[in-house]
Automatic annotation (TrEMBL):
This is Agamous-like MADS-box protein AGL17 isoform X2. Residues 86-113 form a coiled coil. The chain crosses the membrane at residues 157-176. Residues 86-217 form the K-box domain. It comes from Raphanus sativus (Radish). One of its GO terms (biological process) is positive regulation of transcription by RNA polymerase II. It is found in: Nucleus. SMART domains: MADS (SM00432).
Length: 223
């Protein structure tokens, strides 16, 4: 036979009631943790015993969960009540105007336009804020200058590397040309040395005889 249906009602025996409360409380908290993990839900649980003892669980923060609950509940009520919605937006507009006024006043104080009536401590706080802003500006400025110097250095190195490579190519071409015309240069140098020797002796007949092997026209008696 199957188990009979358990009747849900208050347990009269205090000991049994306390034991059941302890077991059910632990099971409820366990289920809340599993729900938060498995379903990525924000779960908040508050339990008070009959002796006013508090037990709670929150997947993130119980305070933020309660604030979210109150805000959501108020928004839902305002959607159902047009008059409440108007009041809500009026309060929001008032809050935004106050924040804007505070920001404008702070801006005037930081620019030195409205300093009357401020205490020494307040002036010191404004001075500290300005110094922090200046430090941030200097750090940003130094960072930009450093990046520009690095970029300029990179371009200069690329330029000199290009010049160096062109010089290497030019030198290689010269060496190739010298190797290619090495025999011609050697013959020309030998011919030049003979001619200079003959000119120094001032013997033109000897000049003709010495250069005759180098000149085919003279070799065959042509003039």
């Amino acid at each position: 036979m199957g188990r009979g249906k358990i009747v849900i009602q208050r347990i009269d025996d205090s000991t049994s009631r306390q034991v059941t409360f302890s077991k059910r409380r632990k099971g409820l908290i366990k289920k809340a943790k599993e729900l938060a993990i498995l379903c990525d839900a924000e779960v908040g649980l508050i339990i008070f015993s009959n002796t006013d003892k508090l037990y709670d669980f929150a997947s993130s923060s119980l305070k933020s969960t309660i604030e979210r609950f109150n805000k959501t509940r108020m928004e839902q009520q305002q959607l159902l009540n047009p008059a409440s919605e108007v009041k809500f937006w009026q309060r929001e507009a008032t809050t935004l105007r106050q924040e804007l006024h505070s920001l404008q006043e702070t801006h005037r104080q930081l620019t030195g336009q409205q300093l009357n009536g401020l205490s020494v401590k307040e002036l010191h706080n404004i001075e500290s804020q300005l110094e922090m802003s200046l430090r941030g500006i200097r750090i940003k400025k130094e960072q930009i200058l450093t990046n520009e110097i690095k970029e300029l250095t990179r371009k200069v190195l690329i330029y000199y590397w290009f010049i160096f490579c062109r010089g290497i190519l030019f030198t290689m071409r010269i060496l190739n040309c010298r190797e290619k015309y090495k025999g011609f240069i050697k013959k020309t140098s030998s011919y030049t040395r003979r001619l200079m020797q003959c000119q120094s002796e001032m013997n033109w007949e000897l000049v003709i005889l010495k250069i005759q092997p180098m000149n085919p026209m003279l070799r065959f008696g042509c003039s």
